Amino acid sequence: MEKSKKNVIIYVIFVLSFFGFLDALYLSLGYFYNKDLVCSFKIGNCNDVLKSNYSKILGIPLAFLGTVFYFCILFLSFYFIRYQKFFNLIKFLIFFGFMFSSYLVYLQAFIIKSYCLFCLFSAFICLTMFVLMFLFYRN
Amino acid sequence: MKKSKFSSFFYEWFIFILIVLAGVLIVYQIFYSKNKGNIYYSNLALINQDYSKDWFLGNRNAKLVLVYYSDFKCPACAYYHTKFLNNLLKDFKDQILIVFRHFPLPGHSGSRELAYAAEAAGKQGKFWEMADSIFNNQQKFLLSKDLNKEIMNLALFLNIDIEKFKSDLNSEEVKNKVEKDYLDALKMNLPGTPSFFLNGRQIFISASYDEFKIFLENEIKKINSN
User: Fold this and answer.
1) CB A38 to CB B16 under 8 A?
2) Fewest C-beta in 10 Å: which of A120, B188, B201, B221?
3) What average pLDDT does the structure give for chain B?
4) CATH number of B40-225
């Protein structure tokens, strides 16, 4: 892949991961400081998802892991832009992130049966990063 | 050459950190502006202000009338029911009337059955005992695989006529009562449970009882000075 093509893709990924970072951070704050004392009439409410049994891994809230994930990509893509290193690491992380976020969407759709808009936004970011990294790749 | 490379290194990472910090600050601002814990009225008026057929606590002639729409499987409702009701009665005595209305949410399977159970117990004079029991043991109901069994256990514990209870559970009267409250809630487009109305106006409150108590004391002063 041409160097300039790589750079363009990573620039876009930098911007995307920035928004993913903000989104995950917002959810993390919500998890730790939630004062929401209401059960929503409409199904498709963030609380159903964020308070589900699936919102933690090994005791760590998913939103927090998401924040760390996006920050890593943010950091690494900035590093690549500057020093042209870690392209494959970024690729690996994005692949992993896409697989995992697909699983989370599956959980929301079929197990929890409720959607959280912020979670779907994050999934969309992961999808876009995946498409950029793997489908625009031409050797 | 070395010097400019060094300073450009710091310059770039400084910009990076600034970008991240700016993002964090923005999110913090958005988050905290949406989560102020305070008390405020909305424009929504309670469409049914005839409390003669509702289950109530306190004084029927009280100046403060608090109506709440509740779902027995809603953890937020359990919170307010267990933490606020008794304290309100203790602190305001005959100055307050608390009215219970049903709003079993579609997303909570079994909450309708629990509403019927409370109404059926009410036919034998034990509505509040049943409601309190359900909310005090809500975890059990949320996790239970056999809701009817849990309901029957509660009825047994309350020492009521079980045959009458079973028959009332399925009666039109009990079902209509719950349906009426539910339809009113739909007409008002209530966002969820619990939904509170103070003297006929929808009010949003926080998790703090003390905050609510102070607010109510002020409302009483306002009413008395008119």
Assistant:
1) no
2) B221
3) 90
4) 3.40.30.10
